[in-house]
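#structure-requests
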Amino acid sequence: MKIGLYFGTFNPIHVGHLIIANHFAEHSDLDQVWCVVTPQNPLKVKQSILDNRQRLEMVFLATEAYPKIKPSDIEFGLSQPNYTIHTLVYLEEKYPEHEFALIMGEDNLISLPKWKNAEVLLQRYPIYVYPRKLNSTPPKPNVKGRIHKVGAPIIEISSSFIRNSIKKGKNIRPLLPEAVWVYLDEMNFYK
């Protein structure tokens, strides 16, 4: 099985995340997309970042109606800070029957050459890139590898916009999967 890994803090997961994940699950050669919840970096504690388990719960609630999209807490048990290359090596050992690929936005592709073991990532793993609206014309990243640019929808929803809107008492319900909105509301998060 070919698994696309979609990393994020998902603080909170929103409909934009689901649109991207579903697009790759349905319109690429990926069999599944795993939404990998990135742990909170203990060196960068921010009050607005919910606990790892709370964010994982929201991803679970958001994805349970999508059989090809799965929540993943795989990085919770790995040493910190998390490096993508370490996660991929661990996943290959744990699931030798699967092939893994990365899913990332165009903005992350630009910074990819600065990632730990970027050359190895580019040589060993397919990278599926979705478009992002960028403020300026990005420099062409000097990356050679198995890059697949996918014509996914451009989504301009951000988790920080959602958190700030909740804090201001705005109705952001349409931007969240219903179960996530109910969970956030009941738990009184981001207020």
